[in-house]
Amino acid sequence: MSLYFLVLIAPFSTGVEATNRTKLVLRLIHRDSIPPSPYSEAENDLRAPLVPYERGLLFLVNISIGEPPIPQLLAMDTGSPLTWLHPHLCTGCNPPANRAPLDDPKSSSTCTSLSCDFKYQCQQYFDDTDCSQESFRCTYNIVYMDGSYARGIIATEKFTFDTSDGGISAIPDLVFGCGTESHGMVLRLNGILGLSNLNGHSLVSRVGKKFSYCIGNISDPYYMYNQLVLGEGAVLDGDSTGLDIRNDQYVVSIQGISVGEKKLEFNKQEFHYNIVIDSGSTLTSLQRSAFEALKDEVVNILADAMQPEIIEGFEELPCYRGDMVRDLKGFPRVTLHFDGETELSLNVEGMFHRIRSDVFCMAVVVSEDETNIIGVLAQQYCNIGFDLNEMKVRFWKIDCELLED
Asked: Are 102 and 220 a contacting pair, CB within 8 Å?
């Protein structure tokens, strides 16, 4: 489960209940382009400055939940199996027995917690769940890669999405989590929109097991064309490679890494040939042997042209003083090679990230748990389409503006 550094999105809908043929289009909203949510617990939940190496970049999905519908901003995460909200946002859901009901005049009439007698009854909704012997309700406990965790009860609720054409689409009885306890970075969020669970009750399954998202210029909070598309309208263009799901993460097979025309050499006995596509991580992570090979190549290329800079806490990363865009003109593209001759090329903005106005660092770090991850910086100017019926993923380098209807 991911959530190192997150991504943001927006609403979708059509006036009728969503079906497997429904096209749901969501605008991806940059965290810095929106005012604080009136439903946030704290005024600065969504206004904190971006600190990519600490809290990371964030995009939110703007959806409405309940009846009457109340808008919420949730962080999209392809590595999270469950959509969930903090307790003060779960209006109308019956809480566990040891908590008082939420006193909210706008309490939803469509939220129902899932009762149980045995654990197996809950696992049909979500694998990592249990049946509380105190409240006899299904509960969840999610631990993310950064140490954050979220706990609560599992319920069903009506989710409503505003589409790009001004319509409304409602998905009734969608399984989600109503939080009772959370810790860590997730406290800064209203909740998570999870896109990795494929059982019949999940959002991805309810819209036909197809979705795509396109991310443009992350450094521009007013870039208008980031989008998430759910259902039959998902953009499934570009070269494809096989897709696997492991530990609720979308995994592809990586065959190699090149810088310009040079294929990097690294310890192939040490390197696991799998890499996770994660919208919930800002930076790309590689196992040490591959990281060192890439780092050495970057250092060699920039040795005579740039002034190195040591950043406290990130001494292992090659960092430089200068203007990233101006000074890295001509830097060779870094390419990730997947099965099926499919590639993902990283330009300067995918390989480096500005720390201060005059300092930038390589946007690739050593994996802390031997998991290779393609972070969202590396996914810029690319549409990534998931077909979970065929178990294929497609990468298409494109300016998201060109996908506008």
From this structure: no
Q: Which tens digit of pLDDT belongs to each residue from 87-138?
A: 766 755 644 433 333 334 346 788 888 888 888 888 888 877 899 888 888 9
Predicted structure pTM score = 0.83
DSSP 4: S
Q: Which amino acid is at 101?
A: P
Q: In sequence order, which residues have a C-beta less than 8 Å from that of residue 49 and are 6 or more positions away? A: none
Rounded to whole angstroms, the Cα distance separating 344 from 346 reads 7
Buried b or exposed e, range 239-262, using 16+ CB within 10 angstroms = ebbebeeeebbbbbbbebbbbeee
Given a contact cutoff of 8 angstroms between Cβ atoms, the answer to whether 363 and 284 are in contact is yes
Q: Cα–Cα distance between 35 and 155 in angstroms, integer?
A: 29
Which residues touch 144 (CB under 8 Å, ≥6 apart)?
1, 2, 3, 4, 80, 150, 184, 185, 186
Selection from 167, 205, 223 nearest residue 28 by Cα: 223
| Closest CA relative to residue 175, chosen from 239, 127, 107, 120 | 127
Rounded CA-CA distance 370/95 in Å is 38
The rounded distance, in Å, linking the Cα atoms of 136 and 203 is 25
Contact 397, 314 (CB under 8 A): no
Question: What is the amino acid identity at position 15?
Answer: G
Task: Give tens-digit pLDDT for 269-320.
Answer: 777 789 999 988 889 999 999 999 999 999 999 998 898 999 887 789 999 9
Whether the CB-CB separation of 232 and 21 falls below 8 Å is answered with yes
Report whether pLDDT(211) > 70.
yes
State yes or no: cis peptide before 38, omega within 30 of 0.
no
